[in-house]
Write a structure and sequence with these properties.
mainly alpha; single chain; globular
Amino acid sequence: MTDENMAPSALTDGPNSRIAHPSTTSSGYRPDRANMSTAIDLTASEERMYTDSEPNIAASEASPKVTQADEHPGGWDAPKPLEKQVQSSSHQDCQQQSDSIALLPRHSHDALRSGPLEQGGSRNHDQLNPPESHDMVLLSSNESSHAPGYSDLFFDLLFAACLNTYSNAVSLERFSNVAAFLGYFTAIWWAWGSQAYFDVRYRRTMRHQPFLFNSCQRVIRAAVLGLWVAFSTTPSEFSRSSFTNFTLIYGCSRMALVLDHAVVLLFDLFRWRRGQSLLHAAGGDDIYHCDDKLSRLPSQRTTARRVARNDNMAAIVRTHLISIASLVASGLFWILSRLLPRSNGVTAPLLVMWILGVAIEAAAQIVNELSDVLSPLGKGVLPERLVLFGLIILGEGFTGIFETLNRISPGAKLRNEALGGAAIESGGWSGDTILQAVSCVLIIILQFGGYFHRATGEINCASVTIVLWAYIHVLLHMSSALLVIGLKKILSFQNTLNAMSKFFNNPTIYLPNTPPWQDLTPEQAFQPYNDGDGTSPLSTNGTLSGISAIISVIQSNDGANIPTLDQAQKMVASVVGLAGGSAQAQSLVAQANASDASNALSSRFAPSLVLPFKSFFEFADNVVNPDSINKYTVKSLFQFKYIYVASAAYLSVDIVIKTMQSSRDRKLRSFRWAMALRFLFACVLVLLQVVFTVFDGAPSAAALDGALAISAAVLLAELICQQIVDGLQSRIDRPRAPKQRHSKLNWPHSSIAAHRRAQSNGSASVSDKDGEESIEMVTQHKRADASKQHSSH
């Protein structure tokens, strides 16, 4: 069989079919419209022609020798080489992405849209019917499968590394620390969000792309990954209110995104010019013999009316140029902020430059979406990327809690020979610690369940609304990140408090078996240290210095271990040597008491030396300026001043997100009930937060032990109420018959009116009957007169 004879039969070979000429008659072949590159409205009769021709196609394929004229009644020539290239690129674009994974549920019609051929080779409804114009647009590299690629997942994991690094370095003990954390998180989130927006909107899949273009994309992606690794070195700057390296790295990330836009723009220009040349060589704008994809960019919106190609190209180039200009301006703002005069903390000019840079980038994205040039975002993978970001934060919460449990749990500890060797020193580990750990894990699980409840992967909104919807996620992710860090610190605080209570309840177990120490009662050990009068391990009072040394070790290791007096004194001796001797240590104690500095000793060393030995330097600073129990409790109670409001913010922002993402759900009564219940429980959490914030002094042990359990109970009750609403959804959402209004006060008037209506209806019926009888009588008289006249004639 020759190539010419094979060419027509290849036109009907499934997804590799080529586009037929319009001159084909009804008995001939109709094209597979799933592979067409233009939005052409075909009538129902044409669909029947296509389906009726499939048996003929199968018969023609079964025939070993068929002439070209028989297979093409219209007498048209074999497809041109351009058509082969058209169908090759179309088939490649329609392939399912194998390197992706879906995270959110999709509607059934979306599953059919990208589904394979049914049994028997028949095509589904979406393949037979031409999709809408925006369905023909390649929104992103993974739009066909609606899932982020594995490279996107790998890129998002770098954020987890940055968040993990910062959560270990940050100290949330006052509002200034929380403000610094929120600023760092917002900047990191925006750096990630702008990159994710570019990936969804402009990045091309590396399959079937030119080698040079793929190489440029890989090089830029590697540079971006390197910048994210550099971001992991900046959390220490926020702890010391210095942001020189962070601003430089962030500015460089903007320039890397500029290169990303430039590479895609050059590739699109090359592709457009190549398509124009092929169109010109094909002899005009023939939609059946040319590939519209070669002249239409993957991120471009198609319309029902074909507009000028040059105008389309100019609009796409304009969106790239707007993005590039905004990124350059933002990068310059961040980089030039390093030249401002430095002082402790963030100054107003510095903050204005940062906010202005981010605002310019956001405004550019909104302007591009309002231009109505780009394809819709509703069916892209942006919701999936945001969900993945939230899962990373919750996963980081699990990581922090598990690391804390591993550090304070007694499972891997050695037996304490001083205590008899039979028992394992457990520190502050007790049933209360287990309760706190269970509460922490339950809170994170309930946050996960609350976010995915009524979640969907498709947003039926305009693209600019979807961009704003994505911006709101920064508040959701910020509250979640703040909560998981607070949970980890509260767990450590509770274990430390339990360890100190265990020591003061029975101090003789950890003290030498000599009369001065064994005669010490719990009240004598507790009261001097609790006064907060400057007692430290370096005190001249041997008893007080010994007790203070033990307490300093307990506070430094999060209550994981209660050392003996000999172990604690050896560790204090190492701090004296680090300070330069006993005289230098005593001067540091006096300086710390005067200024209440919490880092009197560590501030004398370079940060690069302090960070690798962070735990030891924290212990050294605590030896120089120890905290009494009340002072330590009050300082650590700040963690309780934002966990409730963080959970409430999480629920409140989730209400806004769920309300914006689906106009159909907003009309359901069950959805409104569910959101109202969620808002009610958010208000309950806010009230609990007010109680913890307004209360002055150290709360009771029961209040501290039950704080996390109460928060978990509120979230659990909210989830149970949501499940009840789901169970009653069919009853709540069913249509209700309109109720008739009856007035009990005016019932005599209503009855009289009803009687009058009945009488009027009765009289009308009587009159109708009378009218019918009169008509019948007149008719009979006419018939009688007519019969008389007939007989006379």
